[in-house]
């Protein structure tokens, strides 16, 4: 019996994989050079960040491994004092720029994914409640969203970051800086999720399957979670992909302004801020390579989100 059960489960798994491979989205992905290229770049950068300790030739944040004599070494050239050479050069402290980019990429991606996850949970929850419950609850939620939309997201994030950091005890501020940054970006980006989910929920709640669930006595929470939510996830996935690029840029902007990641855990934005101070003195590589990495990451995620939006749009199939 166990062998037969395993065989049936294996057949079902193969059937699901075959159906996914033959789906319209998979077919569109295979035929889109932009989707293939952007996903390859994103996957490469994510894997580089995840395996940074294995890939990076140096630990840029371990003072014991740094040599100030290696400072300002140009890319690919041997240092005139130590004879050491570095692929992308070094910064003012003798840190390998390639290694700092890999470690900074980890911070940027972690903040981006965590902030989008927070915004998604808040926005989807409030959007479902506003669309399904309606009435005064919907009015309050959507008016709060409208008020927040009148302010630029980066200003909202800076305000939240300043308030959260102000109430954090001074001895924990550097340790909590990344989490405060995630909170600030997440709370500034939930509105788009809420508005889209609320609109989709208004459409779904009047359909027959929702009416049937009400007739058999399902609770409102169960209807929203088990019936409506799976049918509003397609636009949420598109918004989440595009919001990831915006969250990464927002993190870089805040760090560039000096109110983001601490110097002990620099992100790509922090590295760009450091490199900007040496741009006009001739050490261009300290700014150029982190900025190029940020550009490649944000552009690739954005292009992937644009393709996903078109692939999931039934009117374009």
From TrEMBL:
PROSITE patterns assigned to the protein according to its UniProt record, in alphabetical order: ABC_TM1
Coiled-coil annotated spans: none
Location(s), subcellular: Cell membrane
Segments traversing the membrane: 34-56, 107-133, 145-164, 176-197, 228-250, 284-308
Principal location listed in the UniProt entry: membrane
Membrane topology: Multi-pass membrane protein
The ABC transmembrane type-1 domain, residue ranges: 105-305
Keywords: Cell membrane, Membrane, Transmembrane, Transmembrane helix, Transport
Family to which this protein belongs: Belongs to the binding-protein-dependent transport system permease family.
Protein name: ABC transporter permease
Organism whose genome encodes this protein: [Roseibacterium] beibuensis
């Amino acid at each position: 019996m166990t062998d037969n059960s395993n065989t049936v489960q294996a057949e079902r798994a193969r059937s699901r994989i075959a159906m996914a491979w033959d789906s319209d989205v998979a077919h569109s992905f295979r035929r889109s050079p932009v989707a293939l290229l952007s996903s390859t770049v994103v996957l490469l950068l994510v894997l580089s960040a995840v395996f940074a300790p294995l890939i990076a030739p140096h630990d840029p944040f371990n003072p014991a491994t740094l040599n100030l004599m290696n400072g300002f070494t140009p890319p690919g050239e041997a240092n005139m004092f130590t004879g050491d050479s570095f692929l992308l050069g070094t910064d003012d402290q003798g840190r390998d720029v390639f290694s700092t980019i890999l470690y900074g990429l980890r911070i940027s991606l972690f903040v981006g994914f965590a902030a989008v996850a927070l915004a998604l949970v808040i926005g989807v929850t409030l959007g479902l409640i506003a669309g399904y419950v309606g009435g005064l609850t919907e009015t309050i939620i959507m008016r709060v969203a409208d008020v927040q939309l009148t302010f630029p997201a980066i200003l909202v994030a800076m305000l939240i970051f300043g308030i959260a950091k102000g109430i954090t005890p001074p001895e924990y501020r550097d340790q909590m800086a990344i989490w405060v940054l995630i909170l600030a970006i997440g709370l500034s980006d939930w509105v788009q999720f809420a508005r889209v989910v609320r609109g989709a929920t208004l459409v779904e709640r009047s359909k027959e399957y929702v009416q049937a669930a009400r007739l058999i006595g399902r609770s409102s929470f169960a209807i929203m979670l088990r019936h409506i939510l799976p049918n509003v996830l397609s636009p949420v996935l598109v918004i989440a992909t595009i919001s990831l690029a915006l969250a990464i840029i927002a993190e870089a902007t805040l760090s560039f302004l000096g109110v983001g990641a601490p110097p002990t855990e620099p992100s790509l934005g922090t590295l760009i801020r450091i490199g900007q101070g040496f741009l006009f003195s001739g050490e261009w590589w300290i700014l150029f390579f982190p900025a190029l990495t940020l550009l490649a990451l944000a552009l690739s995620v954005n292009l992937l989100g644009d393709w996903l939006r078109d692939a999931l749009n039934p009117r374009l199939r």
